[in-house]
Amino acid sequence: MAVDAQPAPQQQSSLSFTEGFLLGQLSIVILIGAFIKFFIFGEPPSPDRTASTRALARQNRDHEHKRSFSAHSPPPGSRSGIRVASSNVLRYPPRLTTPIILAKTYYNVDSHQPESLDWFNVLIAQTIAQFRTDAHQDEAILTSLTDVLNSSQKPDFLSSIKVTEVSLGEDFPILSNCRVHPVDDGSAGPDGAKLQARMDVDLSDLITLGVETKIILNWPKPLTAVLPVALAVSIVRFSGTLSISFLPSASTSHSSSNPTTQVPLHQPLSTTPTSLAFSFLPDYRLDLSVRSLVGSRSRLQDIPKIAQMVENRLHAWIDERCVEPRVQQVVLPSLWPRKKNTRGPLGEEEDALGLRATEAVRDVREEARREVEEERRKDREHREREAANFAEGLRWRSKAEGGGYEMPGSMPM
Questions:
Q1: Cα–Cα distance measured from residue 37 to residue 22, given in angstroms and rounded to the nearest whole number
Q2: Which value, in Å, is the radius of gyration of the alpha carbons in the chain?
Q3: What pTM does this model have?
Q4: Rounded to whole angstroms, what are the CA distances from 136 to 145, 167, 206, 323?
Q5: Above pLDDT 90, what percent of the chain?
Q6: With CB atoms 3.0 to 4.6 Å apart as the test, which of 78, 85, 185, 394 could cross-link to 74 if both were Cys?
Q7: How many angstroms separate the CA atoms of 267 and 22, rounded?
Q8: What pLDDT shows up at residue 9?
């Protein structure tokens, strides 16, 4: 009895392969669509929510830093006990602690009202206006930005960066609500807590920087693909709290490990310079406007994820440099009055001294000019005398030969 062959298993295997292939293609299309929708064209969160989230993260990081600092820092009374041998000629006043300074300046940190900084705002505005004027001369800021963007730190996958737009703004920052209070950050010494001035800063302006470049794909071979990119970043508003503190100079010695050892006068001490430290509190807010254009023919404009990446990178750059607990220190020059730093009209005695000095310089220059002219005159007379002697010698030679003077090498007559 013959049994017919059943091709059903082959049909089922081919059908399962087709279903798997279609399912795989469908899953890839879904993943690509989700990536384009949520990553490229996804709506960014609101500025208020983003600012609150970043401020909360900065505050948590600040609290962690303070806890770690307090856990590892020694108590205030266990600081260096090095005694420096002092002279009996120079009289030292009593130690000025923070409460004594506040009492002598009649400043009560508990009852003093916050101050407006209108006069300081005018000085800051004049400084910024002069900076903008200097930056526009000979396109100095354009040259500086181009050199910085195309420095050796530029990634290899970027071509040369061209600056397409620069705007330094037209408005000025407004500082207000200034108050001074002591801050106990764990580094208080025998002089008391450190004084710190805090003020509110608000800037509403449009400061823009636009650049153009190309992203180069060098794999699997160089210049495999090139993607033009144009980017413009604008600072729309900045608001926050600025804290400024004075860091006096301090002398330390590393010669002895015994804290009760007396350091002799002739031994040098390492001195930290007097500086001014400033930083922003973690609750600052920075609003940006990012415009982007990607592609050459089919261009994608204002991609939200690119804007988020630029904003996150700029906020991280600021947090790493001048947001508490990190500070920026500016070394202050010597405030002792010096003659070389004096500017303005001079007094009668100084006018007479300056006049005599000017006359002396003029006399020296006149004497030098006369000496140079005399040397030139003597040299000219010497050359004329030599030429006259040479001509006289030629005349005497022609008379001695009894005929006219013939040029050497001339043909005989």
A1: 22
A2: 40
A3: 0.63
A4: 13, 10, 17, 30
A5: 29
A6: 78
A7: 84
A8: 54
214-222: long-range contacts, CB 8 A cutoff, minimum separation 24? 214/158, 214/159, 215/157, 215/158, 216/157, 216/158, 216/159, 217/157, 218/156, 218/157
Taking CA 136 as the corner, what is the angle to CA 133 and CA 142, rounded to the nearest 5 degrees?
140
Distance of CA 228 to the CA centre of its chain: 29
Q: Dihedral sign for Cα 107, 109, 114, 119, please.
A: positive
The string of pLDDT tens digits covering residues 189-214 is 566 678 899 999 999 999 999 999 99
Under DSSP, the state recorded for 168 is -
Secondary structure (3-state) at 284: coil
- The pLDDT > 70 percentage for the chain reads 70
